[in-house]
Write a structure and sequence with these properties.
It is built from 9 helices and 7 strands. The chain is of the alpha/beta class. The protein has one domain: NAD(P)-binding Rossmann-like Domain (Rossmann fold). Strand 1, helix 2 and strand 2 form a beta-alpha-beta unit. Helix 2 packs parallel to helix 3, helix 2 crosses helix 9 and helix 5 packs parallel to helix 6. The chain binds nicotinamide-adenine-dinucleotide and magnesium ion. Magnesium ion (MG) binds next to loops. InterPro entries: NAD(P)-bd_dom_sf, Sc_DH/Rdtase_CS, SDR_fam. This is NAD(P)-dependent dehydrogenase. Belongs to the short-chain dehydrogenases/reductases (SDR) family.
């Protein structure tokens, strides 16, 4: 299409995506959980681009893993849409969490920091208690914290008791305990959004245990939607494809980062900013009033059925 004939919305979208992006990133590794400032390039969380349209005005959200990556993009978008945000993260991620909080406050909303390791059930309960206290209530729970390990070899060879335990407890057990603790605080119009993965549908062998936890998250999403629907609470999930976040250089081998995302039909990984729209839609009591028990894929074209 000639440049002059392009609608403004197409021009804006093109300016947000690296046009020369052929997939992959400079080879790099860091220790888990990973920090944003050590990534090359620094991910785009929508800092310069997300425009709020009052879709979540007055709502209160707890977002786990909100310090970085997809969680930070969701926190920024939620705040610009008018929501207050409690940011759950690991203590090692304090600098990332403070930056997310700064961006939420810059949007004129309340930000509450709730650190803690969610592999412990008691911590899940404490994080919800602290969020409810700090925000003065709760309308949205985004279960987004996650972990995988793909550095020690393929499939069964790469499994260690420590990393499998951490993967299962972070990606699955924590969601159960967070939902159980949050449910009594949620009312009509509230919602829960879980972060699943394309791995639930199209698993890759280095992520044997992780992929199974995400399939379990999908199952849990449907069942929780049935359990909480009668109380007017909607439960959904977002299944991202490859996204450029600290999780990747912190848990993959440097040479795998080099081609990360290149295998998708769109030929590149997403930036975290490209995920936020799905979460805002699902959280909106107006736009998604009849949407529950479903999974939205944001995968660059890989199948989610
Ligand atoms: P990220 O590293 O930015 O976010 C993950 C967050 O999880 C961390 O910031 C950390 O705060 C939190 N976390 C991990 N273990 C925790 C624990 N024990 N206690 C408390 N918090 C803990 O990476 P991301 O890619 O934005 O990950 C967000 C979600 O997206 C995860 O559930 C991940 O599985 C999912 N996901 C990511 C991709 C991808 O390509 N990046 C693809 C599909 C799904
Ligand atoms: Mg982080």
């Amino acid at each position: 299409m000639p440049e002059a004939a392009k609608p403004d919305v197409v021009r804006r979208a093109e300016s947000m995506v690296r046009k020369d992006d052929k997939g992959g990133f400079p080879p790099q590794e860091q220790d888990p959980p990973g920090l944003t400032g050590r990534m090359d390039p620094i991910p785009d969380h929508g800092e310069e681009t997300w425009v709020g349209r009052d879709r979540l005005t007055g709502l209160k959200a707890l977002v786990t893993g909100a310090d970085s990556g997809i969680g930070r993009a969701v926190a920024i978008a939620f705040a610009r849409e008018g929501a207050d945000v409690a940011i759950s993260y690991l203590e090692a991620e304090q600098e990332d969490a403070e930056e997310t909080a700064r961006l939420v406050r810059e949007a004129g909303r309340n930000a509450v920091l709730v650190p803690g390791d969610l592999v412990e059930r008691e911590t899940c309960e404490q994080v919800v208690t602290d969020a409810v206290e700090g925000l003065g209530g709760l309308d949205i729970l985004v279960n987004n914290a996650g972990f995988h390990w793909a550095r020690d070899g393929d499939a069964l060879d790469g499994l260690t008791p420590e990393t499998v335990e951490r993967t299962l407890r972070t990606n699955f057990d924590a969601i159960l305990w967070l939902c159980k603790a949050a449910a009594p605080h949620l009312g009509d119009g509230a919602s829960i959004i879980n972060t699943s993965s394309v791995q639930a549908y199209d698993p890759s062998t280095p992520l044997l245990d992780y992929a199974a936890t995400k399939a379990a998250v999908n199952n849990l999403t449907v069942n929780l939607a049935a359990a909480l629907g009668p109380r007017g609470i909607r439960v959904n999930a977002v299944a991202p494809g490859p996204v450029w976040t600290p999780l990747q250089p912190a848990t993959r081998r440097a040479q795998d980062v080099e081609k990360f995302g290149a295998e998708t039909p769109l030929g590149r990984a997403a930036q975290p900013s490209e995920l936020a729209g799905a979460y805002v839609f699902l959280a909106s009591p107006e736009e998604a009033s009849y949407v529950s028990g479903t999974v939205i894929g944001v995968t660059g074209g890989r199948p989610v059925f």
